[in-house]
Amino acid sequence: MSKQEKLYYRLLSKPKDFTWSELVSLMTALGFDIEKSSGSSRKFIHEETQAVLFIHEPHPSKVLKPYQVRDTIALLEREGFVK
Length: 83
Fold this sequence. Notes:
Elements: H1 3-12, H2 20-29, E1 32-36, E2 41-46, E3 52-56, H3 66-78
Antiparallel strand pairs: 1-2, 2-3
Helix pairs in contact: 1-2
């Protein structure tokens, strides 16, 4: 199993310690580009489907909040990335 597959299944398990760097790694592997907005706002845009995930980069802790994990999973389900 590849690193990205492990991250994918880890995200789907809704862990309380999923980090920003793990999210960036997973989303880029799935074909998303990341754009910086003002402050800590970030936008993941899928190259082909143009699906967009707006999210704030967590700080000072780099651990995602539970709602950010849920929003990410919901986007991946809606766009057909969840198997």
